[in-house]
Amino acid sequence: MSKLNLESIIGVAALLIHAAKIDEKYSDEEKILVKEFIKSYTDNENIEDVFKKAENTEKDSNQLLSFTSEVKKNSTNIKSDIIEHLWKIIISDKKIDQYESNLMRRVCGLIYFSDKECAEIKLRMLNNK
């Protein structure tokens, strides 16, 4: 899998944090999942530093668009991986609320990712739980 640049990694991690916070329960498990995403895309970066930058980016931004603009330029494989990480976070508390479902529909639309593929990833993640 190709790598994202650091700015994109921070942006996607901020999007993951946004997904984690949307149900108003930001758990340690969700933080670990975000850090796993960061680790999977970086080689030598300090994961805690990147995570803190992503938390600050998420806190300072109320625009979903800013998190997705870089993502839509990437390959379908990277988009698929990002959608997978989003679903992991959303289902980590074993329930999916309307705000989380809405977020996924909006993200998929903004990054030009098909609803069908998104649903397939969701099912796979639910079956792996």
Model description:
With 129 residues, the chain is mainly α. The chain has a single domain (6-128), classed as TerB-like (Orthogonal Bundle), CATH 1.10.3680. Helices cover 71% and strands 0% of the residues. It has 7 helices and no strands. Helix 1 packs antiparallel against helix 2 (28-41), helix 1 (6-21) packs across helix 3 (47-60) and helix 1 packs parallel to helix 5 (76-91). The radius of gyration is 13 Å and the shape is globular. It starts with 5 loop residues before the first helix and ends with a helix.
Which series of helices and strands comes N to C?
HHHHHHH
Overall outline: globular
Low-pLDDT runs: none
Count of spatially separate domains: 1
Strand content: under 5%
- Determine Rg (CA atoms, Å): 13 Å
CATH-assigned fold name: TerB-like
**CA-CA gap between termini:** 24 Å
DSSP summary: helix tally = 7
CATH architecture: Orthogonal Bundle
Under the CATH scheme, which class?
A: Mainly Alpha
Main sheet: strands, sense, barrel: none
DSSP helix fraction: over 70%
Number of strands: 0
* Averaged pLDDT: 90
